[in-house]
Amino acid sequence: MAYKIKSEKSSECVLAKKRNMKYIVVFLILALACTFSIFLLYTKSVITLNKSFNNYSRVAQAVSDIRKHTLLSQLSLVDLIYIPNKHGLENIASQNDHYDNQVNRAFDLLGKEFVGDKSRVDTVKRVYLDWLSVREQIIARIRLNEEKSLLLNQLQQNTQNIKKINKQLEFLTNTAESKANNITQTSYNGSLEYLRIELLILVLLASCLLIVFYTFQRYITNEKQAVSSQLAWSNKLLESSPDAMIISDRDGVISQVNKSAEDLFGYSKSEFVKLNIATLMPKRFVNHHEKIALFFNHSSARMMGLGKTLYALNKQEKEFPVEISLNLAELNNRKVAITVIRDISEKKQNEAKLIHQANYDLLTNLPNRKLINDRLDQAISRANLSNNKFGVLFIDLDHFKKANDLHGHEFGDKLLICIANVLRDLLRVEDTIGRLGGDEYLVIIPDIIHSESLTNIVEKILLAIECIEPIDGKSVQIGASIGISIYPDCGRNCDQLIRNADLAMYDAKKSLGKSSYSYFEDAMFIQTAEYYALEIALQQAYENNEFYLVYQPKFEIKSQNIIGFEALLRWNNFRFSHLVPEDYIPILEKKNLINKVGDFVLKTSLEAIKHWQDLTGKELHVAVNISPYQMKDPTFSRSIEKLLETYQLDGRCLEIELTEQTLIEPSLMLDQALANLRKIGVGIALDDFGTCYSSLQYLANYPITSIKVDKSFVSGINNNNFNEIKVVLVNTIVSLGSSLNLMVTAEGIELEEQIKHLLNINCDYGQGYYFSKPLTSENIISLLVKDA
């Protein structure tokens, strides 16, 4: 933006000079106007006549070209019809191309030069195109050696087209000639009016002389008013600007400011006057003071927001960031600098806030993954210079999801903040604590001399997390698994250090259990690769039909007759044949495959039990283990109902076995699903009963129909290795089930003395190797026949 301000006195001087120059110019124009007016009229008449004649000549020439070349092309066709010659045919085709080009040029010229109704030109061209079409047909038939009589008929048709073309062209020529005559007559008539026009012009010029003086006088008056209005507008603009505006001379002395400058710097207008603009800048920007003289010499304006951020100094000597623009202007015939200053304190605060949000976790205010990587890079650079080591701790909370689901996400957020505060209080200022996301934290411990010191830090972290005080009156049962990698032993860049610490954490969680730690070792790579291979194999197993079922028979202990089976999942894979379901079912749950596999187990089991019922005529039932993830499917109970309808089975022939892990997270959907299953007669068994402290609560809260005594308790009934506590537990569970009208099944029966004891305490059912190992469906048929 450029400003130009003039005083009234300087404006009047400029206006006087302009007025004198305008008088001289006006009189010169009036004198020359009379001299050239006659010449201009004569010249215009001559030009008009020449143009008219040339126009008629060009139109006539174009018409002649069209006639000539169409006629030549027609004659060549006549020769070709009467004297057929293949070589001559090619020559005529070449000549026709030349004729066509000439005709097209003539039509283009007619379109430009014909001054009459141009649709007439289009009409001629359409007739010409019809003639051209027939000509091409004749040539094509000559090539095919058709009869001469047919060719002559078409030639006669084309001759009629030529006549039409000539008739239209004659009209165009006549029209052009008529137009030329009219223009010539008009020009002649105009010449007669020449003297009258000249006299009128002289009268007009004389009148103009009288008007000019009056106009000049009004112009001067209006100019003065315009300058005054411009000055008032400039002052108003100066005052209304939201940015501070300061006018200073070459030496930096301030002569004028606006209201925004007063508010920004705290000086009044009287205090600003004679104040040097250098006073408004901190001393460290003294080099900018020297640039003021250069600015006047080179007139190089500075745009707002360009260059580095500057700082200004207010009356209280408080600094604040500003953006500045500089422009030159004129005031009373001397150059001044107009400085526009904008306070960007709020902008800088917002930028700092955005930078903070981009680098810090919004919940815990810890460095996020981006800043952690940057801190790791810095730690690597420092370690290389000092030849020291540093440690990276990958911390993953244990049981966080359980606490989050049990108490809500708000509680989970508070718990994450509490963990962050615990780590801040426990670690040093020079240590970096960051949150990777979810319940994962990362800690950088610099200057590690002995691994023992790192171990002590890790153990303190584990203890502090286990001892977290209640939040909002709710107790917290939580731990952590920590993986440790050391630079440069476990990696030489950020990705390697974090990845290896993560592998170590996973090893600690899997191998050592909860609230433990592990240092990274190279062997963990092999374990990880094996785990990933297992994941891939399981993803393909369902599609490749590698899963199958075996059935563990259930016997009535009193009669030792088969009353049903437990369906057990097996995986037919050569590489992972050593794995048991407990090894790969958690992976199926993690990869969201458990619902598909669970549907396969239910469908296959019900299909088998239907076949066995029809074969034996007995009301056999099948028990199926259900994953917690299956119970979270809102369509679970409805899908079971559909399967029962498909196989025409009563709900009592199916029993679903649930673990405490399924029931530990109460929900309305779980309650509804279990209630729906009980309505259609499906049994609900609590598996591994007695292995967790809260089992009795589930008997009260859920519609359980049977309980299963874990084989670890049944194994205590052994004359060679008798365990009195386990025997008491088995007796208590069986008695409890009888009191609550629940059916009781003992698992893992292998010895005859176990059968005798269970019979004495009235246990209902049993299963185990004493009766039978798990069998395939084919072997089950043999067993059923034998049992019958």
Automatic annotation (TrEMBL):
Regions that span the bilayer: 21-42
Name of the protein: EAL domain-containing protein
Domain GGDEF positions: 388-522
Coiled-coil parts of chain: 148-182
InterPro entries, per database record: Biofilm_reg_signaling, EAL_dom, EAL_sf, GGDEF_dom, Nucleotide_cyclase, PAS, PAS-like_dom_sf, Rev_trsase/Diguanyl_cyclase
Gene3D superfamilies per record: 3.30.70.270, EAL domain, PAS domain
High-level lineage: Bacteria, Pseudomonadati, Pseudomonadota, Gammaproteobacteria, Alteromonadales
Source species, domain of life: Bacteria
Residue span(s) of domain PAS: 236-273
Pfam families per record: EAL, GGDEF, PAS_9
Keyword annotations from UniProtKB, A to Z: Coiled coil, Membrane, Transmembrane, Transmembrane helix
Stretches assigned to the EAL domain: 531-788
Organism: Shewanella vesiculosa
